[in-house]
């Protein structure tokens, strides 16, 4: 039968008791951090320049999937197994049931209305091999980068419409660099 460590007994030295307390506290802190990042929020780094001017290469972000329903305009983290090696940060332009159209000038229309997009670096049709207009299937989203000239996104048949199950979460905050820290819209 194993004996339980009694750190209140006279046998344990004060150093042993304090070391035990420190190890116990550290393990509790690490466990809490893991639970928070697994279930509440996830940290991710931006790779590339597809979200400029909203986000820049190497920005560090916090995203969350808790009680999340994809909404047009949200900046999200998506993973595309077998297509792209790392999670991508993009903006949801249209959700299931909406009709997306992009004209030759790069102006984006959703359900016949031109989007007001103050967050983009400029309209550009970019390298698209998709034909428009298209209806986004239920359970899918249409994503674009804010830097349309330099973004691999739903305009490419390589990415196409993204299944909502591949959304890792909505981007909530930028935490690095410190001078740009804040909520992402």
Concise structural overview:
With 185 residues, this protein is an alpha+beta fold. The protein is 14% helix and 28% strand. The protein is elongated and about 75 Å long.
Give an overview of the whole structure.
The protein is of the alpha+beta class. The chain folds into 2 domains: 1-39; 42-183, Umud Fragment, subunit A (Ribbon), CATH 2.10.109. The protein is built from 1 helix and 12 strands, in the order αββββββββββββ. Strands 1, 2, 3, 4, 9, 10, 11 and 12 form an 8-stranded antiparallel sheet that branches. A 4-stranded antiparallel sheet has the order 7-6-5-8, with no helix packed on it. The radius of gyration is 23 Å and the shape is elongated. The model has no long low-confidence stretch (mean pLDDT 86).
Keyphrases for this structure?
alpha+beta; 185 residues
Q: Which series of helices and strands comes N to C?
A: HEEEEEEEEEEEE
Q: Any idea what the CATH superfamily of the largest domain is called? A: Umud Fragment, subunit A
Class per helix and strand makeup: alpha+beta
Terminal-residue CA separation: 59 Å
Shape: elongated
CATH architecture of the largest domain: Ribbon
DSSP, total strands:
12
> How many domains comprise the coordinates?
2
> pLDDT under 50 segments (min length 5)?
none
Beta-strand residue percentage: 25-35%
Quaternary structure state of the chains depicted: single chain
| Average pLDDT rating | 86
User: Which sheet architecture does the biggest sheet show?
Assistant: 8 strands, antiparallel
As a percent range, the share of helical residues equals 10-25%
Number of helices: 1
Rg from alpha-carbon coordinates: 23 Å
Quickly name the level 1 CATH class of the largest domain: Mainly Beta
